[in-house]
Amino acid sequence: SPGAPVQVAARALGLATMLVLGTGYTRPSKLDWHYLDGRIEPGPVLDQALLAPSISPDGNRAALMKVGAGHFTTFVVDLRTGSVTRVGQVDAGIRTPVWDPDGTRLAGLSVNSGRNEVRMFDLGSGTDSLVVDTDYEWGVTTAWSEKAGVMFFSPLVEGRGMDIRYVTMSGKRAIKDYLATKENEGAPALSPDGKWLAYASDE
C-alpha cells in the first residue's frame, strides 16, 4: 500500500534470482517472491510486524527481527509453510540477523546488559554464544562469507558516520577496519566467490 515501508532480501537460487519483500513497522508483515521476469508469487502473511529479512542459503527460510524498546527479538519464518519460530528469548535477540554458510546459525548485534556484542544463535542446539564485543551503540551485520572467513559489520562511528568493518571468523575473532573514511559507507555485500564487495556510499 502507498507509504508502506519495503525491505528487500536477495539470494541467487539456481538460474533465477528471487527477492523477498517484507513490509510493516507497526503492521503485520507480508513476504512475497519477486522474480526477475516480473512474476510475483505470494508468500506468507505474518501476524506481527517483523523486519530486515535475511534468506537462508537453501532459500527455504527467512530470519527477521522484531523491534522493541532498545531490544530485538529474532524469528525464523518457513517460507514454504508460513510457520514462525522464535529464536532465543523475547527482547534478547539480534539485530539484522545473517545466516552462516551452512544455514545452521544466525549472527547479529545484541544489546546485552548495556553491552553491545555480536552474538550467534545455533538453531539446532539453541546455544547463544558471543562472537565478539563491540564498542558501537548502533550497527548491523550484513554478510557472512565462508570463503573469505569473515562476517561484515557496519557500525555507526561518532564524528564520522557509517564504516565497513569485518569480524574474523577463523582463528582469534576480532573486528577489523575495511573502509573507514569521513563519508558514510555501509550495506556491504560479498560476492559468492568471496572476491568482490558491493557497498553503498554517499561519497
Distance between the termini: 32 Å
Query: What value does the Rg take, in angstroms?
Result: 16 Å
Instruction: Indicate the low-confidence ranges by residue numbers.
Output: 1-6, 12-17
Q: How would you state the average pLDDT, rounded? A: 80
State the helicity in percent bands: under 10%
Number of helices: 0
The sequence of SSEs as H and E is: EEEEEEEEEEEEEEEEEEE
Strand content: over 45%
Shape: globular
- What structural class do helix, strand and pairing data support? mainly beta
| Counted beta strands | 19
Task: Give a quick rundown of the structure.
Helices cover 0% and strands 57% of the residues. It is an all-beta fold.
Key terms:
203 residues; mainly beta; 4-stranded antiparallel β-sheet; globular
Q: How would you sum up this structure, described in words?
A:
There is one protein chain. This protein is an all-beta fold and 203 residues long. It has strands at 6-13, 16-23, 30-35, 40-45, 51-55, 61-67, 72-78, 84-87, 95-99, 105-112, 115-122, 128-133, 139-145, 150-157, 161-162, 164-168, 175-179, 185-190, 197-201. The strands form 5 sheets. Strands 13, 14, 15, 16 and 17 form a 5-stranded antiparallel β-sheet that branches. β2 (16-23) and β3 (30-35) form a beta hairpin. It is globular.
